[in-house]
Amino acid sequence: MASPTPVPGVLDIQPYVGGRSAAPGATRIFKLSSNESPLGASPRAIAAYAEAADRLHAYPEGSAAVLRDAIADLYGLNPDRIVCGNGSDELLHLIAQCYCRPGDEVLFSEHGFLVYPIAARAASAIPVTAPETGLTASVDALIAKLSPRTRIVFLANPNNPTGTYLPVDEVKRLHAALSPETILVLDAAYAEYVKRNDYEAGIELVANSENVVMTRTLSKVYGLAALRVGWAFCPEGIAGVLNRTRGPFNVSIPAQMAGAAALRDTAFTEAAVAHNTEWLNFLTGEIARIGYRVTAGVGNFLLVHFEPQPAPRNAAAADAFLMQRGLIVRGVSNYGLPDALRISVGTEEANRLLIAALRDFWIATSP
């Protein structure tokens, strides 16, 4: 018996697969596959989450006002232009569903976040990719791929899984090339980690444009991945559209309360960023000294390159070797990078064990 037919594009979707969390046979596990915070969540956020247990019988306040107010206070924004979601992934999907018609195009860079083609196809739109230069989004290549059917341009800045970014002047150059009917979505999930003078997450561009949206997440530096908390800063018109179509209670009470507490605990956030800066530099330098090529990133992870398959020192062999040591990393062949592994910054112990394991792998596989 035939099943009902879904809308065009849905059956072309390859389901998103998150980072692994198990290493069979390992006595201790260090998960470095999902870019989670090695410091965990703020104690204030954990306390707020526990306090929310007394309210599990109640529906959330629908607009996530407590969370929007905390975001607005931190960044000096108008809370009416902030839309909160069940993770930033929900907001990326909502934008596509609200603005794409069947046959429209959604543009992103070659190694962009895998949610982008999923969101496009779920909205019956056509995913279009633009080649990158040196594993970095190319504004010229993106502009060359624009067409009258381009409705959304997704730009992860910094990008996952490469860790590279575009300076603010390049982002503005891309925006200037867009039609007023094309939305530029700046996915700034890793913005808190970036310490470059030429970087801007997107607040200024959104504030002065009608077709730019910036999305953020509390899953990374704030350590709230389990609660699924994301937000978008939007022009008033787009905020109104998203608020009409999102679920009426899409951010739970525990998520709202923990998220607001995490945002206000700036000392904890600063400690998490400082930890990342120190150990990202350590890992980048030590892995390069072993002999592996590392893509210099600005997030909380790095991309390590291995010899092309089927060489004995390839990424798959390294992945298996690290797994035996309880070090779980992320293969990125589904991003078109079969010869690389994405490795999150971990605790000091995990980082040092990683270096030792990669050094042992290099020695064990040397000719």
What does this entry look like structurally?
Strand 11 (293-295) and strand 12 (301-305) form a beta hairpin. Strands 2-10-9-8-7-3-4 form a seven-stranded mixed β-sheet, sandwiched between helices. Strands 11-12-15-14 form a four-stranded antiparallel β-sheet, with helices on one face. The longest helix has 25 residues, at 266-290. The protein is built from twelve helices and 15 strands. It is globular, with a radius of gyration of 21 Å. It has 367 residues and is α/β, with parallel strands linked by helices. It has two domains: 18-40 and 267-364, Alpha-Beta Complex (Aspartate Aminotransferase, domain 1); 43-264, 3-Layer(aba) Sandwich (Aspartate Aminotransferase, domain 2), CATH 3.40.640.10.
Count of domains: 2
CATH-defined architecture of the largest domain: 3-Layer(aba) Sandwich
Helix-and-strand structural type? alpha/beta
- In terms of per-residue confidence, which ranges show pLDDT below 50 for 5 or more consecutive residues? none
- Terminal Cα separation, in Å? 57 Å
Separate helix tally: 12
TL;DR?
The protein is α/β, with parallel strands linked by helices. It contains 12 helices and 15 strands.
List the helices and strands and how they pair.
Elements: E1 30-31, H1 43-51, H2 65-75, E2 82-86, H3 87-99, E3 105-109, H4 115-122, E4 126-130, E5 132-133, E6 136-137, H5 139-144, E7 150-156, H6 168-176, E8 183-187, H7 203-207, E9 212-217, E10 229-233, H8 236-245, H9 253-264, H10 266-290, E11 293-295, E12 301-305, H11 315-324, E13 327-328, E14 330-332, E15 337-344, H12 348-364
Parallel strand pairs: 1-13, 3-4, 3-7, 7-8, 8-9
Antiparallel strand pairs: 2-10, 5-6, 9-10, 11-12, 12-15, 14-15
Helix pairs in contact: 1-9, 2-9, 3-4, 10-12
